[in-house]
Amino acid sequence: MGGDNAPAMVLDGLEIAATELPGLRYLLFGDRDLLEPLLDKLPRARSVCEIRHTKSVVTNDDTVSVALRSGRESSMRLAINAAAAGEAGGVVSAGNTGALMAMAKFVFKTLPGIDRPAIAGRFPTQQGSCVMLDLGANVDCDENNLLQFAIMGEVYARYALGIKKPTIGLLNIGVEGLKGNEAVRKAATALQETDLPVRFHGFIEGDDICAGTVDVVVTDGFSGNIALKTAEGTVRMFAHFLREAVHSSIPSRLGALLASPALRAFRARLDPSCYNGAMFLGLNGICVKSHGGTDPIGFANAIKVAHKLITDQVNDGIKEDYARFKAAGDKEQEDAAG
Amino acid sequence: MGGDNAPAMVLDGLEIAATELPGLRYLLFGDRDLLEPLLDKLPRARSVCEIRHTKSVVTNDDTVSVALRSGRESSMRLAINAAAAGEAGGVVSAGNTGALMAMAKFVFKTLPGIDRPAIAGRFPTQQGSCVMLDLGANVDCDENNLLQFAIMGEVYARYALGIKKPTIGLLNIGVEGLKGNEAVRKAATALQETDLPVRFHGFIEGDDICAGTVDVVVTDGFSGNIALKTAEGTVRMFAHFLREAVHSSIPSRLGALLASPALRAFRARLDPSCYNGAMFLGLNGICVKSHGGTDPIGFANAIKVAHKLITDQVNDGIKEDYARFKAAGDKEQEDAAG
């Protein structure tokens, strides 16, 4: 029931996913009276889903505490409960991000050793794409949070992007060791000294994200959210200026017509719906957040992200890596003590 | 002597400025043996400048403390000294940002009531341009720093952009009152309650920067630097993808040829050299930082920024506004006490 054009957008996305991911089945949580008439026009979606009726919905205006307190019968909460009970492999929602994170954390709990879950998303780069986290779940982060994000992001990039040995960069305002706040400096030291076979690149700057300097961009949720949205706004401005330029004269319109297949391919490379579907990393369950303003193709992509993370068992990878990291740290402390 | 292609780039920029800003004179601080042969080819630049010879130079690798301690005879320091002594109206440098800020702060001191100076720059938007600060001078900022940035940024936008009543936005990860860290929340409350006739828009998100939602974007130096560089990187990626698309086929090349005047105008709107020249706001003197990697046109733009700020007496505006703000605050405290 979440998202700007829900539930129609969600069901149209499900119709696409039903074709592209054969064999999957879905539990749909929401208002049967709204869902049934829409499903009448979507035969594929109908054939793969089962409605779990509820009238209660978390809105975008609900605060986290209101959602937690009075949203116990909401479509969002019941979907998370179903995943936690093993009825579903994971949850996909285009609803209120803060409420979704809080409920998922409350129900799923965090993975062993992870203090705070993070929102991880894919980002287009000149080389292909990268993973960035945290995109807004944690405003203030200390070095341990950043370190845990790095470990989780590395595993996520291996599974979700299929990169064998992803490189990790810490987002900062300069590449020299003395730059930045205490948290990034201490996290960098810890990553340099770790025994884990992670490829730590060091500090990166904002322009390194799109340049594709690293596979995993680690940052706090404040800067990460600002970087993500600034990039989105810049792409929109660029596209707006380009459209204006193309429409400014008859020769340029003709030129755009000649170049239209190339321009279509160009647009596709930066299409936000291709990158839709951010994972809540660090939870003991799979929860994928779709952009509220996405289109059905974007929502189908969020479903694909969830499907891949479930089948690849990404959380087992994180647990393993964190345990190895923890063991290495404990050994070091013992050695130092002994 | 600062910048990637210095001193040639600086002198070529001076040649442009000498034509576009008639009647100005310049003091050039640097190595006479390097400057003289270059000036031989630049008759206009030579006719308006006087060389103050020094061999000592602050490099980009120098830390702030090294620059402060052993850079007393450096071209950067001597230029700042000359401005402080009233020999020059202000300083323009394409050198080491941290060293320039530290030296300028040490020599000029800050304006009354301003705890920390900020780096303010212009940013392209869909509506024209906006002012953003801080772009990297202050990693950690409290609510008072942000409030001072807002007051300084408002004055700067009035003078530098010629906007009569600029709107101010606080960069955050959501527009609701509860979002963000303590500093932005407290600064928002103070800006809402101020008696100053500033137009406070409230919180904005990263995509509002390029959308042109406000005239002045206020943020801490960590997020501001990341937003600035992320936007720069996104523009580069977009341009790279567009070039690849245009060169992908013969019809699209032909199309680009037809549209070439429009594409040139399009490129000009996002040309970073148009936006070159960031002001160190809050100092008792004019200091403008040029991007180290800029071209001569960009450096000439940085000179124009300095010239405008000097002739408009931007610092008098800041002093006035801050005094009014302070007086309003003092009166409130008295009222509360009485």
What does this molecule look like?
- The structure is a homodimer of 338-residue chains.
- The first copy, chain A, has helices spanning 8-20, 32-39, 43-48, 64-70, 75-84, 97-108, 143-160, 182-193, 206-211, 221-246, 250-258, 260-270, 296-312, 314-337, and strands at 26-30, 49-53, 91-93, 118-125, 128-133, 167-171, 199-204, 216-218, 278-281, 287-289.
- Chain A is an alpha/beta fold and 338 residues long.
- In chain A, helix 7 crosses helix 8.
- The longest helix of chain A is centred in the last third of the chain and has 26 residues, at 221-246.
- Chain A is globular.
- The interface between A and B is large, with 62 and 61 residues.
**Strand order across the biggest sheet of chain A?**
3-10-9-4-5-8-6-7
Proportion in β-strands of chain A: 5-15%
The CA-CA distance between the termini of chain A, in Å, is: 57 Å
Topology of chain A as a string of helices (H) and strands (E): HEHHEHHEHEEHEHEHEHHHEEHH
Structural shape of chain A: globular
Largest sheet of chain A: 8 strands, mixed
Ranges of chain A where pLDDT stays below 50 over 5 or more residues in a row are none
Structural class of chain A: alpha/beta
DSSP E strands of chain A, number? 10
Radius of gyration of chain A: 21 Å
Helical region count of chain A?
Answer: 14
Summed over residues and divided by their number, the pLDDT of chain A gives a mean of 91
Biggest interface, chains and residue tallies = A-B, 62 and 61 residues
Quaternary: homodimer
Helix content of chain A: 40-55%
